[in-house]
Amino acid sequence: MNEQSTPNPDLKSLDRLIGTWKQSGELAGEITYEWAPGGFFLLQHVDFVHGENKIKGLEVIGHEFAFGAEPGADIKSRFYSYLDGMTLDYVYEIEGDTLTIWGGEKGSPAYYKGEFSKDGNTLTGGWHYPGGGGYEAISTRIK
Predict the structure, then answer these.
(1) Which of 88, 42, 34 is closest to 63 using CA atoms?
(2) What is the rounded CA–CA span in Å between residue 10 and residue 105?
(3) CA angle at residue 45 from 39 to 47, to 5 degrees?
(4) Is 3 part of any domain?
């Protein structure tokens, strides 16, 4: 069996997401981020409305670590939708004050890019989709 005694240090870059955030703009609702016991995974709970679509679910964020392999280099996630059973995969990156979430794989043409405010309590950005679609949203920490 594989053993990894401590979480990858790059996961600490996600600490700035911990808490509950209010979403406004084209996506309204709340997001809560919390560390799972052990610190190997960040859990994201979402409850949104986007247009006429309700989005509610759980995202598990961390490094892939398959049987017989070393942990992957990228911070990956899978979102599980409570309302329709859909699953979506992402890759997370934080460089400086910029959060990028790639839809599917790193470098995907579908991605979120946002900037943290100086105090870290606001994240302003949006999703960009191939062909020019997407939406803007502002996240404000409330807890």
Answers:
(1) 42
(2) 18
(3) 170
(4) no
Q: Which DSSP helix (H) or strand (E) runs through 140? A: strand 134-141
Nearest alpha-carbon partner for 48 in 76, 82, 75: 82
pLDDT (0 to 100) of residue 77? 97
Burial (Cβ within 10 Å: 0-12, 13-18, ≥19) of residue 123: buried
Closest CA to 112 of 124, 120, 122, 121: 124
Phi and psi of 105, rounded to 5°? -120, 155
pTM over 0.85: yes
CATH of the domain at 68: 2.40.128.20
> What are 22-41's pLDDT values in tens digits?
999 888 999 999 999 999 99
18: containing domain? 9-141
Selection from 103, 135, 98, 91 nearest residue 113 by Cα: 98
